[in-house]
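Honest question from a wet-lab person: if I give you the sequences of every part of a complex, can you actually get the arrangement of the whole thing, not just the pieces? Trying it with mine:
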Amino acid sequence: MATDITQAPDLQAPDLENSALGEINKYDFITPTTDVFKAERGINREIVAQISEMKGEPGWMRDFRLEAFEIFESKPMPKWGGDIALDFQDIYYYLKPTKEQGKTWDDVPQEIKDTFDKLGIPEAEKKYLAGVKAQFESEVVYGSLQEDLGNKGVIFTDTDTAVKEHPKLLREYFGKIIPSTDNKFAALNSAVWSGGSFIYVPPGVKIEFPLQAYFRINAEQMGQFERTLIIVDEGAEVHYVEGCTAPMYTTESLHSAVVEVIVKKNGRCRYTTIQNWANNIYNLVTKRAMAYQDSLMEWIDGNLGSHLTMKYPAVYMMEPGARGEILSIAFSSKGQHQDAGAKVVHCAPNTKSRIISKSISKNGGRSSYRGLCKVEDGATGCKSNVVCDALILDSDSRSDTYPYIEVEEQDVQIEHEASVSRIGEEQLFYLMSRGLTEAEASSMIVSGFIEPLIKELPMEYAVEMNRLIELQMEGSVG
Amino acid sequence: MPETLKITDLHVAVEGKPILRGVNLTIHRGETHALMGPNGSGKSTLGNAVMGHPGYEITGGSIELNGENIVEWDATQRSRAGIFMAFQRPMAIPGVKMADFLRHATTNVRNPDRKEGEELIPMRQFRKELTEQMEHLRMDKEFARRYVNDGFSGGEMKRAEILQMAMLRPKFAILDETDSGLDVDAVKLASESIAAIGQGTTGNGDQMGILIITHHDKLLERNAPDFTHVMLGGKIVETGGIELAQELYTEGYDRVRAAYPDAAATEQAMTEKDAIAN
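Yes, you can. This is the full assembly:
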């Protein structure tokens, strides 16, 4: 297809009334795209090689992909978590929507701007964003990076570009935190990955504002396999924010990302994610950070939507004084299973971790907390605190907790608290006796429940998260 | 003709167990009523039933607001129509700030026809009013930023309930043991505040009809009841003036029990059943 991407195609007005099957989701619109290249459906060795070739990658990356593909084929499906009913041969693994990456807002194709308009991105960009990278389908199409960031030596680009422009730096860490052998979906991502962010923050550089990226799946049965690698050098600081919304389709889609983070001595990294997937998407993500001496890694992870999410952000504390904090929230509704949690691994003495996990289940949704706290032999003086709270809104919904604790050291302090509560009749009555409707009252109780997460988000994300929760809550009681 | 809350032959059951057995009570706006009675006689049940708690099943009789039977209304409708209850043990709503909660509540009660998602009362106006009312109650400004009843002391909870009453300006308010758990100074402050709010001096000048459920007489010093009612075995057995409240506080309920043996027998049966159930 040789389409002039600078010409705006005719846009279909989003039919918000009719596009919503089942639950109304304001982001359920489909923007017609002008694809430049679409790999054929399914996966085999040839397709993996073709993806590498299309991208013009060096031989080492091609070999990395092919090796990962073999690992993917040899690994069984995970037998725990949720039921995965995926036909790997029924998915597209690569889609390249535009020929080149847009450099400025004017270069961005109209239809993509249109999508961003619906999501309210341009305003947010003007007001808050310093560097925006937006992934439209599988490729980054628009990115801007503040000049002073570049002057400080900060690299913020898509991972494909980094393969070409920063091969030495990328290759040193790529696939080292999460090797292809880690799990079946990490192997799949390693074979077919496309897009994602690559960030390098040089020693001592503190980025005062969050770096942000919007991700979006747009083609039916289109798998999205972004690959993110963040390197925070000694004494450096960064906050990376990723948010996802997706339109709704009737057939399965797969999102399987790999996110690797390295935080060196005295560094700090906060990685914030808000994901709101369509109800048919399998969201199977591997996220892991390695934190070195006296550094801090924080994962803030909000999961809404999807058919099944399996995601357990991990922090490996590699050297003394490292800290890992994970704050996660899951909201599951009809036909949705959120199997989410966190992993903390104390590999060195005097390391500290904290996990706060909150889940909300309604209309037959299921939320599971699955967490691992591991202390290795010799990691003396470690502290770990795990709190997981589940809120169940009706009797059709379900919540489970699977905490795994493996401690090979005596001199440690580990606390685990779990609570499950239902929205009480008494709480509802109290709020209703003050003039709130039952729906308003439920909504208020839920927003209070997730307040500890919301207050950690950048302001525009807090607003969006509250709006998403309100949408999820609409008509939830009757 | 003042506005009226009229309870007629009200029967209420909780989990199938009859508690109220024919309560009659009429409150006009501007009047203060005291409701006294031993524990378990049904005082709080009356409050909850009037407020519309779904767990309190009305098995007979009526509750009329200005002639309209409201027993089918939910708590939201009753609240927006001007009925308020200060709870004995208000619920904590973790994560929800007092100010946000009160802004929603105040907007809804003042604009009863408001639909969800419609504008709230302007922030500036709301803040000003809230600050004024909090000053009356000698509450710290920080209080508005705390989560609703979450980790409040007994005294803070009661003051928060009075603050809500001041903001919502109901036509009829039921105060369920708003004096319990308070020290002498706190009761004095609560008492003065309730009197001022009841007279409308802190709001728009409209008087309220107040039903004070209490075991003591302190709250009544500044809120002299026009009527005192004694509840026993799920019924109001006697009504008098302020002197009845004073008598009950000092003398207890022995005279009343002796005077109404049927109600006393019911009360004893209810209490014994509770003892077995517990």
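Two things worth pointing out. The longest strand of chain B covers residues 17-28. The interface with chain A takes residues 51-55, 74-76, 78-80, 84-85, 87, 90-91, 93-96, 100-101, 104-105, 107-109, 112, 116, 147-148, 164, 168 of chain B (CB under 8 Å).
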